[in-house]
Design a protein that fits this description.
This protein is an alpha/beta fold and 337 residues long. Helix content is 46%, strand content 18%. A hairpin with a 4-residue loop joins strand 6 and strand 7. The chain is globular and about 70 Å long. The two termini are 29 Å apart. It binds 5'-O-[(R)-(carboxyoxy)(hydroxy)phosphoryl]adenosine and zinc ion. This is tRNA N6-adenosine threonylcarbamoyltransferase.
Length: 337
């Protein structure tokens, strides 16, 4: 077919997802979340995640087909996240995809989860290679130059925590609800960035980032404020949020500037991941793109956080290049781009 109909599967973390794409049209995009299963443990428990993926992946596929009004015979190829991620979950997806490919005789395509995120701007916008991509979420933080569907150059990334993780930890330190990103952003609106916090790795050349020291600095500033006050005044909490958010914004913007300088032929600057939902951060990144004279692309959040439409799309890009896999496709816990 000229315009392929793709089934995509994603199960590398805590969302079981399936989607149907016809060309760039999203016919369905099902995400079955597991938050409630992991909530009591304060993080994703791999064993629980693997079991839930194995139980839910067939349901996700059925629902995706159903919502799309398609049956399996109308699917041209099956794309699945083959890594990196929690191996039990990745295996559940890969085994399901292999079963479907064997049963239908349709091509099987293993997709790198990060490539799925990195190619999403081409699903939602007309963007040509190469472009600069910033993945910025609770689990990822890296700058990629995207040269083709199978060609990525990592320009830099975090050497410790991801920024979303730092937002979540700072929220915990300040007794704000999880996920921390939105609650810290809301609290910051009531405050001013008056508390001096470090801008980690700013004076080091290159595009690497660090967020764990920033989180520790917030802890220290909080304790100083509590000592002086005997309690954490609401205004101080808001100032801490505003100061932390400004620090994250400043380092992301400066490193983005450098990453763009390192790829002068970039046609666009795109962001993906939960942290890109932050208004202040988004504005600063948009400004970096504006100054470089290139479009700033931020796909809708449902396509920026973990989903299977991005995997189906990355699969379509690979199918177009003839990059298919056979039934020996392996699930890989680690898989650098
Ligand atoms: O992309 P995502 O949904 O999931 C993965 O991490 O894979 O990102 C979630 C992360 C969480 O750490 C959350 O606190 C952060 O994105 N986040 C935000 C905002 N909304 C979500 N961080 C800063 N500001 C926000 N408005
Ligand atoms: Zn992801």
């Amino acid at each position: 077919a000229q315009v392929p109909t793709m089934l995509g599967l994603e199960s590398s973390c805590d969302d079981t997802a399936a989607a149907i794409l016809h060309g760039r049209t999203i016919l369905s995009n099902v995400v079955l979340r597991q938050d409630d299963l992991h909530a009591a443990f304060g993080g994703v428990v791999p064993e629980i995640a693997a079991r839930a993926h194995a139980e839910k992946i067939d349901i996700a596929v059925e629902r995706a087909l159903d919502e799309a009004g398609r049956d399996l015979s109308q699917i041209d190829a099956i794309a699945v996240t083959a890594g990196p991620g929690l191996i039990g979950g990745v295996l559940a997806g890969v085994m399901c995809a292999k079963g479907l490919a064997a049963a239908t005789g349709k091509p099987l395509i293993g997709v790198n989860h990060l490539a799925g995120h990195a190619l999403t701007p081409r699903l939602t916008d007309d963007v040509a290679f190469p472009y600069l991509m910033l993945l910025v979420s609770g689990g990822h933080c890296q700058f990629l130059r995207v040269d083709g569907p199978d060609s990525f150059v990592r320009l830099g990334g975090t050497i410790d925590d991801a920024p979303g993780e730092a937002f979540d930890k700072v929220a915990r330190l300040l007794a704000l609800p999880q996920p921390g990103g939105p609650s810290v952003e809301t609290c910051a609106e009531q405050g001013r960035p008056t508390i001096a916090l470090p801008r980690p790795l700013m004076d080091r050349p290159g595009c690497d980032l660090s967020f764990s020291g920033l989180k520790t600095a917030v802890l220290r500033a909080r304790d100083d404020a509590v000592d002086r006050d005997g309690g954490l005044r609401e205004s101080i909490r808001a100032d801490l949020c505003a100061s932390f958010q400004s620090a994250v914004r400043d380092v992301l913007a400066e490193k983005a500037r450098r990453a763009l300088a390192a790829c002068p032929d970039a046609t666009a600057f795109a962001v993906a991941g939960g942290v890109a939902a932050n208004g202040a951060i988004r504005e600063a990144l948009q400004d970096v793109a504006d100054r470089a004279g290139i479009p700033f692309l931020a796909p809708p959040l449902a396509l920026c956080t973990d989903n299977a439409a991005m995997i189906a799309w990355a699969g379509a890009e690979r199918l177009f290049l003839g990059l298919t896999d056979d039934l020996t496709l392996a699930a890989r816990p680690r898989w650098p781009l």
